[in-house]
Amino acid sequence: MRASILGVEKPNIDTLERKTLMKLRIALITLCLVAPASLRSAQPSSVLPPDQAAQETATFLRDLVRIDTQDPPGNESKVALYIAAIFRREGIPCEILEPVPGRASIVARLRGTGAKQPLLLLAHEDVVPVDRAHWTVDPFAAEIKSGTLYGRGASDDKGPLAAHIETMLQLHRSGRRLSRDVIFLAEASEETDSTAGMHTIVDRYWDKIACEFALNEGGSAEVKDGRIAYFGVATGEKLPRGVRLVATGQSGHASIPVLDNPITHLAQAVTRLGTWETPTRLNDTTREFFSRLASIAPPDQAALFRSLEDPATERILHEKWPLFYSMLHTTVVPTVLKGGFKSNVIPAEAEAQIDIRALPDENIAAFYAQMAKIIDDPSVTIVPPDLTNNMPAAPSSSLHTAMFAALEASQQKLLPGAITIPTMSTGATDSAFLRAKGVDAYGIRIPRTFAENEGVHGNDERIELQYLALYQRLVQEAIEQVSQ
Ligand SMILES: [Zn+2]
User: Fold this and answer.
1) Angle at which helices 158-174 and 50-66 cross, to 10°
2) d(Cα 377, Cα 367) in Å, to the nearest integer?
3) How many angstroms is it from 283 CA to the middle of ligand 1?
4) CA torsion, points 280, 284, 287, 293, in degrees to nearest 10?
5) What is the pTM of this model?
6) 3-state secondary structure of 248
7) Which residues contact 76 (CB under 8 A, 6 or more apart)?
8) How much distance in Å is there from the Cα of 429 to the middle of ligand 1?
9) 435: exposed, middle or buried (C-beta count within 10 Å: 0-12, 13-18, 19+)?
10) Residues 304/324, Cβ–Cβ less than 8 Å
11) pLDDT mean across residues, the chain
12) What own/partner pairs with CB < 8 Å and gap ≥ 24 does 24-28 have?
């Protein structure tokens, strides 16, 4: 998941690093060039039983975590090279896509009969940076303690990536021809916007990944007291559409107060936006989410989930369940204030950053116009974001497809005590690019506890290997079901 659209990528690659990347690039090109010849001699191994497949998946994850792909700068080609070697060994054709040197993605395809449209398995290779001082283990050692693997990317997104590699191998080893192609994509630059990422891949290499369905990160599956109550499949997500507010006025000596002091105007604008209650709005996904959640919730909570448009409920959700509140609103959250440089000087300008997460169907131009009315101050300007490489507006994926049904059936088979719930992610993923191309993309994730969840983009990121194995089996099962 990406943190913010405001982070501008500036890769800091020194000369030595450039040389290493150049060598790596040559290695990648060579690997892909020689791949077809080696494919004829490569021997796929046989299908592994579940316990061995789980071990192999864990080994892939360990290796992937040990490859440092903190973004920026990313250096994702190292991961692409690692995966290419595995696929080559097993005889799975693959191709490196490297629009930016050192920042490669890799695509592979298992051919089906073509009776149905392809399916895409997507995961990203880069990880967010670490603050080593707050980790209790080395974030790139992939240490395993009591069945839990620690390391940056264990959850986001190298765990799923390892499981997708294993799924490709197992499907290939089975020798069975599915009714559709299964495409694997490990993509660069998900955590920051750059020309190495999904925007470019969709734009430039669409023919290599065109598909009907996609499985990607997202969704939810919380482990509580050793139990998983529901398996959340993300069918839609909010769009990051944050803005800058810039207040301008006449600078001068603070001993002479003026009415157009930018600090005062900005503070008032930020307060107005920060306390603005945007309207509650349900869509297909959230309507179904709360209705299914009500079916397994205690009576008092169920009553709330059935009266979402009641103002009293809205207040309770905002206080007690901010995540649920966020699913029902386009949210406007001030995050950064900048202004002034000396206590006795009135500055000419002051600025604030406002994080905005728009509901999928939000008319964002109209929303910004509404914000200007709320601010009601001509000295404050709203500066919209540059969306060149960012998520396009996209409709949510349908709840009524063979893929959604296959995910639900797989959950019932492998997690019989739980129920499947469609969710709308409040964060953003690269599924938006696929949805904008008409793909029904679904977000799923490896089950984890609330405490483990805090490690994602935080400290001591970790994943329980039993749930990594479960995720892998679930993905494979869903693909087999939807590709019969
Ligand atoms: Zn992610």
Assistant:
1) 140
2) 16
3) 24
4) -130
5) 0.84
6) strand
7) 69, 102, 103, 104, 105, 125, 126, 188, 189, 196
8) 7
9) buried
10) no
11) 90
12) 24/77, 24/78, 24/81, 24/102, 25/77, 25/98, 25/101, 25/102, 25/104, 27/81, 28/77, 28/80, 28/81, 28/84, 28/96, 28/98, 28/104
State how far the Cα of 377 lies from the Cα of 68, in Å rounded to an integer.
47
What residues sit around ligand 1, an ion, with C-beta below 5 angstroms? 1, 156-157, 217
Residue 467 contacts residue 448 (beta carbons within 8 Å): yes
Which pair of structure tokens corresponds to residue 152?
């940056």
What's the sign of the alpha-carbon dihedral 15, 21, 25, 30?
positive
Q: Are strands 213-216 and 119-124 parallel, antiparallel or unpaired?
A: parallel
Q: Taking a C-beta distance cutoff of 8 angstroms, is the pair 118, 183 a contact?
A: yes
Q: Enter the tokens of residue 176.
A: 């069975």
99 close to 196: Cβ distance less than 8 angstroms: yes
402: nearest Cα among 288, 306, 281, 483: 483
pLDDT of residue 42: 53
pLDDT band at residue 10 using 50, 70 and 90 as cut-offs:
very low
Q: How many Å lie between the centroid of ligand 1 and the Cα of residue 156? A: 4
Give the side-chain half-sphere CA count within 13 A for 32: 19
Interval between CA 217 and ligand 1 midpoint (Å): 6
Q: Compute the distance from residue 286 Cα to the ligand 1 centre, in Å.
A: 22
Predicted confidence (pLDDT) per residue in 186-231, tens digit:
999 998 888 999 999 999 999 999 999 999 999 999 999 999 989 9
- Per-residue burial over 332-358, b if 16 or more Cβ lie within 10 Å, else e, is bebeeeebbeeeeebbeebbbbbbbbb
Give the pair of three-digit tokens for residue 359.
């509901």
List the structure tokens of 105. 């993605």
Domains present along the chain, CATH in parentheses: 15-219+426-482 (3.40.630.10), 239-383 (3.30.70.360)
What's the gap in Å between 124 CA and the centre of ligand 1?
7
Amino acid at 257: P
pLDDT at 32: 39
In sequence order, what E strands does 277-372 have? 331-339, 345-346, 349-358
Angle at alpha carbon of residue 217, lines to 214 and 221, rounded to 5°: 115
C-alpha 36 chain-centroid distance: 33
5: alpha, beta or left? (left if phi > 0; alpha if psi -120 to 50): alpha
Give the H or E element holding residue 169.
Answer: helix 158-174
